[in-house]
Amino acid sequence: MMEILEEVELCFPQLLNSSCKKPMRTHFEIILSYIILSSITLLTTTLNLLVIISISHFKQLYTPTNLLLLSLAVSDFFVGLLMVFQIMLIDGCWFLGDLMCTLYYLLDYIISAASVGSIVLISIDRYVAICDPLHYSTKVTEKRVQVCVCLCWICSVIFQILVLRDNFKQPGRYNSCSGECVVVSDYIAGLVDLVVSFIGPVTVIIVLYMRVFVVAVSQARAMHSHIAAVTLQGSVKVTAKKSEMKAARTLGVVVVVFLICLCPYYSVALTDNLLNPVSAAFVICLYYFNSCLNPLIYAFFYPWFRKCLKLVVTLQILQPGSSESNIL
């Protein structure tokens, strides 16, 4: 008898036939989903907030590369906040209305596009630093990076509004029942979005990092063969090169993790495959988990981030002059 009641449990019982039915899930599945998504949300928002505070507070970290990391951390932080809505959807019902549903998807798409754009800018930054180091300081300035980051976010907003414009004319027009949260873009807009938000950026990222990898390997061999004969001035140059290559390696890990986490999600969209609920949940969790992994990568590879973490957690950043602290 209980199974029969669960099968016909509605999102809005008072609406009867027009209400969506809640999917059949065991209490264990629901609780596990809540625990996993809540943990990812808490970790993602907390860790990325620490990255944002660190780069914003300490003046030594005001570099073009770190400004790009700041943009990525901001997008990842908002991904964490938006996961609260994903937690609300665990029981299969949307209770916040059709307009809020459309706004949720719009924000989600904007943040995802800005995140992809930030990864592309990071790849370009590392490409110039490794492949054209002599002109890096003149080509990549803080002002230019700030402009590029602003353009990235502005273009993401405008583009995604255009993609979802039909959904704002009549919010909820594509819902098959009350309690559903669905947005739909026409075929051309969806195809353009896929190319602009995934295929194009991923192609650029892979090509640039392949080039960076080849140059980095050749530079490493050159440094190894001449390491014994360098002067003091040469040692400084070698150290600088090693620093740039370490940054490239670290950000390369960020890029690889990004591709691993996002490719399954976009592959499903590209092939238009319908997944079973377990597979769909895994793909979505992997997509969101990427935003949690980036700060963990910084903590593992960047000593300055670990030092900042200690200063922030112990509230030493509240002391006068703490922004001038030597953390590099």
- Provide the helix percentage: over 70%
Number of helices: 11
Strand fraction: under 5%
Give the terminus-to-terminus CA distance: 66 Å
CATH level-two architecture: Up-down Bundle
Radius of gyration: 23 Å
Number of domain units: 1
Helix/strand-derived class?
mainly alpha
- State the shape: globular
Major sheet characteristics: none
User: What would the average pLDDT be, to the nearest integer?
Assistant: 79
Number of strands: 0
- CATH-wise, what's the superfamily? Rhodopsin 7-helix transmembrane proteins
Oligomer: single chain
Secondary-structure element string = HHHHHHHHHHH
- Highest CATH level, the class: Mainly Alpha
State the low-pLDDT regions, or none. Answer: 1-7, 231-236
